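Take just one protein record:
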Amino acid sequence: MRVPVSLTDRFGPGPAYADLLTACALEEGLLTSAEDLASRRFLARSVVPHIETLSRLFNRLDDATPGDQNYWRHASSHSKNLRLAYFLAFLPPNQFRMASVWNELHRLGFRFPEGMFPEGGFRAVELGAGPAAGASGIAAGEANGPLGLPARGEWQLVERDLAALKLGERWLSSFSSSQGLSWRAQGHHRRVELKDGFLPPAAPRFHLWISSFFLNELKEPSDRIAEALSACWERHLEDEGLAILVEPALQAQSRRLLEIRAALLKRWEDNEPKGRKAQGRARFQVLLPCLGHQACGALAKEDDWCHEQTEWWRPNYLRKLDELTGLDRRALPFSYLVVARTRRAPAELLPALGAWPSPSTYRLVSPSHAEGKDAEFYLCGQAGKRRARYRYEKEAGKPQRGDILLEAELVGAPEASRVQALSRIV
């Protein structure tokens, strides 16, 4: 995924972003002094142990799923320090992941239609919001690469832990203001139960529906989650609105998101109205990362999965935390899915791709390795997943994971193809 320097500069290594985090943590009583983040002793004693606790849980190292318990109140950790550890070590990477997805939409030309939003601004919801990593990521993305969200808007943050929710309200308000946006945050203290639907039936319709590392906390099977998502979007997502899901890059969780995508596509195909009923009706369209509604190439093999990776400049204090914990957050892997409810044609939604879906459009879904004068990588398109080589111009550099090949001509078998020709790389 190609992320501009202007976006990474909003997070570090300069002092501006860290100062915002510090001010918010001080107001919440999570820090006692602005100098705490510069103290290795403070970080080692009051932050690092709780980062390690959360990291074991999120990476399933203790054979547990985050949704099994309220991890904001883990038995082995002081709840205040646990919130501080998440706020300092996990919120910034998750915020940047969401901002990167927003930037990808901007890079490919997506814009909300003119006149879509009421005078009061947009309405948005984040499920499992915690400290609002997803919503604040949208703020960074929109300030850097606008899709046309109004400067005014209201976010509904849904979270089961009240203290984390209050932190999210404060953080989203202060961070969005720092980006020149007047976004309000209203918290809803409730646990999301799938049997009750993701949102109450009386909830309004939203222009933007997001979740960040939330679906992986659910125990229900993929088809049941897809059914609930689709029903929620039917009721609560405005026409021309977006739904953005960001999930872990771990094999099982990434495959689960791919299974949810497949179940969504089947549900939409089965329920698609025909003939006159379909005319002028908004339908659901997968925008990213898959460029079309084709079968998933990664699901063809039981041990395969698909994820994205983005790189950034970490805040200086986060570099210290990585040194103390042995973690490395220079590169940020994740899985994601972007869905639009729209009347527009695909070519109008992502104009940088020209006419799509197309059998000659492919996305790189792996790192790119140099093999002599060639670059070797895996591609995914309407015909599935392929291993391919491409003779690239040295000045242009190797294609990167997430790049899109337009009007590509491939020859050879799927396990050993060659990109013979292409129009351009986006």
Remarks:
- Residues 136 and 172 are 5 Å apart (CA to CA).
- The two ends are 10 Å apart (CA to CA).
- Residues 362-425 form one domain.
- The chain has eleven helices and 16 strands.
